[in-house]
């Protein structure tokens, strides 16, 4: 039998779902937070993983007695569409009075993800405070919707929509339009993770004529690769985004620190926290795509190396030493680059290599992962590989070819064994 307190909540929620008439009822407890400088409604909701559900946006305006388009005031307290329950110490289902196990798992992951990102201070089991997103109880559909808001640029519905932003925002004005050539990669998922970003520019060439930052060049190649994949119908998860920088053709890419996780979350200053934030996001999306039948998933992490100024090096590939799939993917990429060098630089030869490593991203992502080092940022000869736009595009093209060969081979193996 449902507990009296849960009966009260069920009754209140039924009324709230009907006409939102309980915005000021003291029996309904919503989590409240202060708006930060520069916050819009979507920014605030994005911080709490609520922005992708239209009913959350509508509820926010209702419970705060606001109208759509109203601005937020810095330092003012606003209620979020997040119910506060007293955890009963047994289970989420008994706490909120539901039998839906999958719903309970989503609520658990919601609370734990917010804690991992520093939004929640303590675990719900120790604090006895359980946060339940409004959409888990009140939305008829649990399919996320991409929401636009007046203070942001309008959504171009002709382009692919990513979590939080459109491809127009991601690729920049010069590269926003692209044509889907075929659907040969339909059902395959690629996580494109550009190294560093936010408070960490990665390795730098600070004594060059112009300062070069690793994260800017890794990001540019990552976007070019993502665009290639989208043209063939792939599902692409771009993990890190700079809202101001799309694909750029300049030689010198300006260093900045405004990159964020694609969800809009700030990148933590702490190194391990940064890596955990990325792998947590990838693993969360991996489970979602698996539940939808997408089993071919890989992670490509793109970096620029730092070595002595005299050391000239070719592109090389790091795989996780404990994963055969990771090694196989790295081998396929290396073989592709070897073929390309044999064709385009016959007299030079290819001196890239494989490297078995235990990097955090390689060992903590559920999909097989490969980390690519594009060049030595300290070596002047290597600079041509990353400074010239055509070379950055060639890098993206060759990585694309290596990936698609690998996935075709994996698909053939799956078919042969089925």
Give an overview of the whole structure.
This protein is an alpha/beta fold and 418 residues long. It has 14 helices and 13 strands. Strand 5 and strand 6 form a beta hairpin. The relative contact order is 0.10.
Mean pLDDT metric? 84
- Strand order within the widest sheet? 7-4-10-13-11-12
Structural class: alpha/beta
The dominant shape is globular
Elements, N to C (H/E): HEHHEHHHEHHEEEHEEEHEEHEHEHH
Strand content: 15-25%
For the sheet with most strands, the description reads: 6 strands, mixed
Distance between the termini: 47 Å
Helix content: 40-55%
* Low-pLDDT segments, ≥5 res: 1-27, 141-168, 411-418
What is the number of beta strands? 13
The radius of gyration computed from the alpha-carbon positions, rounded to a whole number of angstroms, is 24 Å
Provide a compact summary of the structure:
This protein has helices spanning 4-19, 41-47, 54-63, 92-96, 101-116, 124-127, 134-138, 167-171, 214-230, 271-291, 324-344, 360-364, 380-387, 389-417; strands spanning 30-34, 77-86, 129-133, 189-194, 204-205, 212-213, 235-238, 240-241, 260-261, 297-305, 316-320, 354-357, 369-376.
Task: Based on the model shown, name its key terms.
globular; alpha/beta; 6-stranded mixed sheet; disordered N terminus; 3-stranded antiparallel sheet; 14 helices; 418 residues
Fold topology:
Elements: H1 4-19, E1 30-34, H2 41-47, H3 54-63, E2 77-86, H4 92-96, H5 101-116, H6 124-127, E3 129-133, H7 134-138, H8 167-171, E4 189-194, E5 204-205, E6 212-213, H9 214-230, E7 235-238, E8 240-241, E9 260-261, H10 271-291, E10 297-305, E11 316-320, H11 324-344, E12 354-357, H12 360-364, E13 369-376, H13 380-387, H14 389-417
Parallel strand pairs: 4-7, 4-10, 10-13, 11-12
Antiparallel strand pairs: 1-2, 2-3, 5-6, 8-9, 11-13
Helix pairs in contact: 9-14, 11-14, 13-14
């Amino acid at each position: 039998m449902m507990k009296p307190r849960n009966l009260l909540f069920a009754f209140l929620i039924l009324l709230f779902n009907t006409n939102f008439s309980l915005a000021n009822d003291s029996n309904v407890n919503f989590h409240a937070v202060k708006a930060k400088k520069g916050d819009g409604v979507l920014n605030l909701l994005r911080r709490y993983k609520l922005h992708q559900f239209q009913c959350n946006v509508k509820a926010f305006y209702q419970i705060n007695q606001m109208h759509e388009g109203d601005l937020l005031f810095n330092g003012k307290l606003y209620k979020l569409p997040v119910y506060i329950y007293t955890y009963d110490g047994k289970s989420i289902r008994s706490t909120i009075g539901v039998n839906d196990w999958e719903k309970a798992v989503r609520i658990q992951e919601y609370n734990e993800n917010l804690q991992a990102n520093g939004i929640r201070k303590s675990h719900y089991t120790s604090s006895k405070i359980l946060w339940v997103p409004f959409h888990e109880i009140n939305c008829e559909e649990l399919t996320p919707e991409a929401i636009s808001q007046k203070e942001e640029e309008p959504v171009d519905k002709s382009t692919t929509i990513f979590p939080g932003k459109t491809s127009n925002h991601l690729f920049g004005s010069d590269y926003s339009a692209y044509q889907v050539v075929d659907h040969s990669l339909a059902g395959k998922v690629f996580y494109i993770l550009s190294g560093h970003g936010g408070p960490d520019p990665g390795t730098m060439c600070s004594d060059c004529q112009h300062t070069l930052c690793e994260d800017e060049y890794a990001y540019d190649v990552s976007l070019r690769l993502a665009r290639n994949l989208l043209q063939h119908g792939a599902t692409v998860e771009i993990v890190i985004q700079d809202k101001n920088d799309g694909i750029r053709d300049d030689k010198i890419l300006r260093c900045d620190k405004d990159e964020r996780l694609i969800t809009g979350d700030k990148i933590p200053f702490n190194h391990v926290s940064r890596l955990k934030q990325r792998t947590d996001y990838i693993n969360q999306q991996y489970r979602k795509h698996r539940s939808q039948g997408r089993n071919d998933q890989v992670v490509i992490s793109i970096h620029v190396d730092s070595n002595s100024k005299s050391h000239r090096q070719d592109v090389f590939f790091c795989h996780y030493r404990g994963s055969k799939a990771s090694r196989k993917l790295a081998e396929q990429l290396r073989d592709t680059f070897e073929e390309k060098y044999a064709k385009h630089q016959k007299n030079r030869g290819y001196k890239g290599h494989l490297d078995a490593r235990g990097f955090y991203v390689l060992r903590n992502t559920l999909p097989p992962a490969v980390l690519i080092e594009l060049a030595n940022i300290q070596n002047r000869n290597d600079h041509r590989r990353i400074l010239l736009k055509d070379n950055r595009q060639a890098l993206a093209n060759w990585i694309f070819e290596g990936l698609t060969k690998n996935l075709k081979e994996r698909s053939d193996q799956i078919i042969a064994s089925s």
